[in-house]
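JOB MANIFEST
job_type = single_chain_structure
chain_count = 1
residues = 217
[input]
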Amino acid sequence: MPRRFLFLLGFVVFLAFQKTEAQNVVFDTVGNTMITADTVVKPQKSAKSAKSVKAKKPHSPTKATIMSACLPGLGQIYNRKWWKVPIVYAGLGGLGYLAYSNYSESQSYLHAYEYKTGDLPEGVTLTQYETDLANKYADSQLQTYKESYRRDFEFYSILTVAWYGLNILDACVDGHLYNYDISDDLSISVDPYLRHTETPIKMPQYAQVGLSFKLNF
């Protein structure tokens, strides 16, 4: 009797111990590894969640166009075409200088012509350069030079405006082509082409034979 009681008591204790162990053990369904309940498992952060990835803003051709319209070369900087900025300002500077130079010359010859003909407005004084022009050339010559410089001034002014507009157009085009994938792999492949023609009735089958051209760019 004591043996049976001790055996029964031991069996009950064993079952209780197994139940306690089952409550304190958690099985991972992924790796099938045993983790005790007292262990604190920190959730693993993925690489994307660990790093705060900023959303990449889309490149705006409209923004590039407006920037170049407000300040020449700014749209090229936005398009990451830095090497175009010196070209933009070289063109604007050169054409602007030629326009201003021809305007100054036309005004000098105008004042010399007005002084020569006696039509110089009151309050206008001649510079030494304009006085030398009046003494050097006749009325007709002064008028001819004046008109020539005036036409050149208008011509270079138009070119300056055109260069300014070209700067805007260039920024707009580069903005549209910013995300365009231009591959350096330019190749062409030629393959034989063969296709059988099927007919609804039983008759000799014919085939189309030729060449297939593929151009990669």
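[summary]
The longest strand covers residues 187-197.
DSSP finds seven helices and four strands in the chain.
exit_status = 0
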